[in-house]
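RECORD TYPE: inverse folding
INPUT: structure tokens
STRUCTURE:
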């Protein structure tokens, strides 16, 4: 699986999440850290997963505490309310983002937008850490399964991610061709994840001054070669 990223920013996904994304089919496209730019579009999301049938807008949420979903607007991690910078619950956040992305798609890739007919864009909230006590209402969130909060699929943990995606899009008859995968990568300025650029400087903690001509080694977690 080739993974891409579209913004120069920190990738904060858990190692288990990256491993799960790498096991997805090779002909799928995963683009991390998406921020489509266009008229009336000011949203960003953690991942866009493009299959041969649909587009999946994913918000990954990592919480050490048990997640309790009381209503679509009331999500809690322990006793703390889960809210975005726009004061939205994760469900509200990804739902609004999916709507904005649909508008961006119509503006920048009208052929693909028409092909999907507004039915092939699926929003997800994925809780990266599975907790057996995560609940939606009184329903436990089972690992490897998803429950619906409105039109948003919510899953606890990243196990069986491919199976869940395929189950959700099974009724879609349209096909997304490789040319559309490439078009989306180009429009989102997606770069291969394996070629991320590391920038920065080394400073002396004593006075904060930059240090020059020092050897630097970089060790990446979760990379096999």
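DESIGNED SEQUENCE:
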């Amino acid at each position: 699986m080739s993974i891409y990223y579209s913004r120069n920013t920190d990738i904060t996904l858990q190692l288990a999440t990256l491993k799960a994304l790498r096991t997805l089919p090779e002909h799928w496209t995963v683009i991390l850290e998406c921020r489509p730019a266009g008229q009336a579009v000011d949203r960003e999301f953690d991942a866009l997963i493009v299959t041969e049938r649909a587009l999946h807008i994913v918000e990954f949420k990592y919480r050490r505490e048990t997640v309790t979903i009381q209503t679509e607007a009331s999500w809690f991690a322990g006793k703390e309310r889960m809210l975005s910078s726009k004061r939205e619950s994760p469900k509200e956040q990804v739902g609004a983002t999916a709507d904005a992305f649909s508008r961006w798609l119509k503006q920048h890739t009208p052929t693909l937008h028409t092909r999907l007919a507004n039915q092939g864009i699926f929003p997800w909230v994925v809780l990266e850490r599975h907790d057996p006590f995560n609940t939606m209402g009184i329903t436990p969130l089972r690992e490897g399964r998803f429950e619906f909060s409105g039109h948003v699929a919510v899953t606890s943990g990243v196990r069986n991610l491919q199976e869940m995606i395929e189950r959700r899009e099974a009724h879609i008859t349209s096909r997304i061709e490789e040319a559309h995968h490439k078009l989306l990568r180009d429009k989102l300025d997606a770069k291969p994840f394996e070629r991320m650029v590391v920038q920065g400087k080394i400073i002396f903690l004593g006075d904060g001054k930059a240090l020059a001509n020092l050897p630097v080694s970089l060790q990446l977690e979760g990379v096999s070669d």
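NOTES: The mean pLDDT is 88.
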